[in-house]
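One-letter codes give the sequence; backbone shape is given numerically. An example follows:

. . .
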Amino acid sequence: MRRAFAVAGAGAALTLVALLFDAAPLFVPGVALAALGLLTPAWVWLAAGGIEVRRSLAADRVLEGEPVEAILEIRRGVLRPPGLEVFDPLGGETVWQSGSPSLRGAARNASAGVAARFHRRGRHTIPPPSVTVRDPLELVRVRRAGAGAFEVLVLPRPEPVHWIGHELDAGAELAAGRFASEPLAATELDGLRPYRVGTPASRIHWAALARGAGLLERRMTADADTRPLVVLDARCEASAGERLDAAIRAAASLTLELARRGGCGLLLPGDRRAAELDPELRAWPAVHARLALVGGGPASRLPALARGARLGRVFYVAAETPRRLPNALLEAGAPAAVLVLPQAVRAAGRGELAFEVAGCYGYVLGLGRRRAARERAA
């Protein structure tokens, strides 16, 4: 706007000089400059007043590293803008520059696709797009912002688990995908599931078979759950963001892997009760979103892992080497627990390497003591 006023002032001064000194050749350019400086802002402001820009996202949730796609829609008014620039913070770039061919002539609507990638989990707020209308001489620039900001939830990316060792008790049942069924003393009904070969006839739901629902079995639960449990310890230094992200990706990967193979639980920082997942993964979207929002840091609370609450194996995922492991991980009679740490964290003497997932290693705890006890018993 200052440039336009400067041009108008120069035109007025030139016109005044022409009048004072009776210099007719200066009168025409003086009037032209004054008119240019006064009419150009009006033209640009009127054209900008009828412009609208909107963004529509294809999804509000996306995995780390996957593209977030959006469509920008721009609509002009009756007066065609002399030139415009459309900037979208989602892609961090100018979508349109100068005169847009899509808005020339009688066309009033145009659209363009924008894509961006987020490499860190969490909630990301994307400011609205903006349109800058300008004249060809760059005398006036008018910026108009679109309506509303958008939020995108970036979810931790699950990765395959690469099993390395076979020291996970009972002939590497975990690596093979076989989990212990419910204890024979389990008496509490926990629903129905498809029949599995080897299930006792007393657990077959004959009424469902008679109704034509197929062969189903009763799913029983005991006081202590036998399914594996993934525990996330998000305590770390404030500068250890990458290690925390790696630990959360490992927790998400293990939870998804174990849930598909028979179900598991996930205990997040500060929780006293684990979130349970079945092979159908019905609770996975909510659990995945909670993992994306884990804060971590020195003030993060320790998961409330109670002793004797579960009979299944515990996978303790930590962003840093814990100074002291919870007693529930080392109690007698339970399967050997697994400590999962980022590769950058030293874990000397923690146990034997069992698997690698999402830049983290899993170490089986207490195998040496358990082998020695078996040898003494033999």
